[in-house]
Amino acid sequence: MTVTPELIEQGIAQDQFLFHYQPKISLLNGKPSGAEALLRWLQPDGTLTPPADFIPIAEDAGLLPRLTAHMFPHLLRDYQQIRALHEPGSESPIALNVSASDLDGTRLLRLVRDAIGEGQIGCDQLQLEITEGVIVAEGNQQVDRTLTGLVAAGVKLAMDDFGTGFSSMNTLNRLPFSTIKLDQSFVRQMERSMKSATLIKASISMAEMLGIKTVIEGIETEQTYHALLHSGCNEAQGYWISKPLPLEGYIAFLNSRPSWPCSPVGMLRMAQLTHTWQHKLMVDSVLSLLSKDSAERTDALEQLHMDHTECSLGRWYYGEGQHFADNPDFVALEAPHQCLHDSCNRIFEAVRDGAGPDRLLPLLETLGDHSGEVHRYLHRLETRCLLESFQNNS
């Protein structure tokens, strides 16, 4: 069949489009953590037309906003059935792909706000996936306003195909993304290219330090899955886990209570990494303030200060890290971490008072001692986890 804009319009009018759902799983607990809603076109003869055959044509004809508006209520109805399978408070989000033309207007934002306001879906139950190249290519104020409005409504934004666009770093810096999806081209090359494997791990580490979650897509083999298990990535998606499923198939998938190998080691390694970098960046920032005047010091120190529950290590410790709550090394970690922040506060006070290098030296040495103790407990915790994982899999 030759797809034309007229046939797409006819398909919309006759309600021939539907969603298939590709599951995502958490690498921390090995359980389903949500799904991506992928558009399909069901022809009258029962065959399915994949999106690659009609999305570009719909986009060129300016039909994508109409198609999205038509399908959004379908997504909400599907989610009512999906949500019924979850315990209250444990709903897994559904991710919807949106286009540049969806963002270059106000209709999508109105649809989302109305759905959340009417209780049809929670803001934490909906994620919007946007291709990185689309955002950079658009780069206009309306797109930025729409994205900012969606975030203000509580919706999480995911940058799809991360690493394939024009300026990944600039896009992350400019727009409020909470998740990046690493492009599957890197995953496919990972097993035969050390450079690709390094880029994946470096991207995960960078995202963690920015407080951004990561999803690896394109997991096609068990070998690839296990190679990424300790990478620190939050979620995985791919045909080895599951192909996109029609609604009934996805519901059956969830009802089967599937599980995959999992490990807390990756998240633990990310906690160690961000702790080390935040410590070093804080020291660099403090030293750079010594040549500033009093007002500049005060303003800069306000930005550096945070409670021990607010830093990346603290968010992990009082969040996902509670997986280790019964581990003595984990319990022992809390006291030196709090002492580390107390040391930071004393350093900030000294800098605010105009202290020089001589007064700061013993304070920075004490800070280093507390940081070293934190690292020691984290390292011991990682070693124990690795050994336990080896024993469980042998």
Structural commentary:
With 394 residues, the chain is of the alpha/beta class. The chain folds into two domains: 254 residues, EAL domain (TIM Barrel); 127 residues. The chain is 56% helix and 13% strand. The chain has 17 helices and ten strands. An eight-stranded mixed barrel has the order 1-2-4-5-6-7-8-9, surrounded by six helices. Strand 1 and strand 2 form a beta hairpin. Helix 13 packs antiparallel against helix 17. The longest helix has 37 residues. It is globular, with a radius of gyration of 24 Å. The chain starts with a helix and ends with a helix.
Q: Approximately what portion of the residues adopt beta-strand conformation? A: 5-15%
- How large is the count of helical segments? 17
E-strand count: 10
- End-to-end distance: 52 Å
* Mean pLDDT value: 88
Helix content: 55-70%
Could you state the order of secondary-structure elements as H and E? Answer: HEEEHHEHHEHHEHEHHEHEEHHHHHH
Task: Assign the CATH topology of the largest domain.
Answer: TIM Barrel
Q: What CATH architecture label of the largest domain applies? A: Alpha-Beta Barrel
Detail the poorly predicted runs.
none
Large-scale geometry: globular
Largest sheet, order of strands side by side?
1-2-4-5-6-7-8-9
- What class do helices, strands and sheet pairing give? alpha/beta
CATH superfamily name of the largest domain?
A: EAL domain
Radius of gyration: 24 Å
Number of discrete domains: 2
CATH class of the largest domain: Alpha Beta
- The biggest beta sheet, please? 8 strands, mixed, barrel
